[in-house]
Amino acid sequence: MKRSLCKPHLWLIGICLFCSFRLPAQRNDSLKIKWKLHAQGYVKDLQYVTFGNNPDTALFETLLHNRLNFSLNNNKHFKMALEVRNRLFAGESTRQQPGLAAMLEKDKGFVDLSWVLAKSPGLILHSQIDRVWAGWINKKWNVRVGRQRINWGINTVWNPNDIFNALNFVDFDYEEGPGSDAVRIQYQLSNQSGFDLALSPGKDSVHQNAALLYRFNKWYYDFQVLGGISNGDMVAGLGFAGNLGTAGLKGEISYFYPYYTNPNWTDDNLSASFSIDYAFRWGLYINTSFLFNADGASKQNPWPISAPWYNRDLTARYLMPTKYSYFLQLSGNIHPLIRTDIATIYGPGLSIFFLMPSLSYNMADNLDLTLLGQIFYDNSSGTFRNMGNLLFLRFKWSF
Length: 399
Prior knowledge:
Elements: H1 8-22, E1 25-28, E2 33-51, E3 59-73, E4 78-91, H2 92-95, H3 100-105, E5 114-120, E6 123-138, E7 141-148, E8 180-190, E9 193-200, E10 209-218, E11 221-230, E12 233-244, E13 247-258, E14 269-279, E15 285-293, E16 324-335, E17 338-347, E18 352-364, E19 367-378, E20 385-398
Antiparallel strand pairs: 1-2, 2-3, 2-20, 3-4, 4-6, 5-6, 6-7, 7-8, 8-9, 9-10, 10-11, 11-12, 12-13, 13-14, 14-15, 15-16, 16-17, 17-18, 18-19, 19-20
């Protein structure tokens, strides 16, 4: 039976809100330790419409998104953090997805920190804690325990090394990315080298993750090597970042070998991504990237994984359904307060093409307005045909 609305995490949020306004700092005179509580967050109003070639198929949707971030530290060795995202889905798109509430409520972490607080046809209120951890820092050591972001990725778009929290570029509204329930121990050998060990227990053997990463600098390049287990695979990876002349050059390679029977895959896989980016003096920024997925589709045939490529729960093993994928992004300011951006992804194996143009206006220091589109095309029949469109209008107020 589902828990009542009076949940422990809501009490914790209330206490943190109270403290953030009434108790900004506390001092223990006997220990001479000063604790500070910081609170910040944002509120987003995201209006969007989905439609195909026929305007009569248009579905309108509203997503209200609130995030609350709290951190407590003593400026010495200890720090704690709590971050909560609350979302209200309302509209025809929600009404036509009867399984959306169940999907949102299912927490993939070791601890269930996701709740659907209210639901009805066409409306869902969802709350999730995606960061809650305690940390200790002492000279070269940094230890964290709890739900946290473990970012091992180097590239902007596709990250085969990001075995704990793979990001989805298409899911633009979740800038922070998901977290993992983990114990993380970092040891710094020097300013440019160190070890990073992360252990993330899962609810079953398929979802257990444990890996060790070593970072170092050589030939003016930053390198990293990693090895461990990830979602039923043994994995080994390599990443690098540096300059190619005046342009930036980055790369990630990971090899996955299944050690545990998984219903989604039984074969090994190699995933590799490379990117070059360059910023012109007059403001234009270009980012190009290439992804190789050895087990992806290279011909006009179904992808071996049944999940669609537009999936919020990507893994480092399968970042795209095609064997070869290409990315191009152009961005720049057309006015000091207005930024424009256009990004494209092309997968020749399945002949899929994705276009995402956007226009952002900085209305004030803490208020932004963004107009963004997502257009999907398919060329499996020999000619490009539109498979769907999304148009977003987002107001974001940060505090």
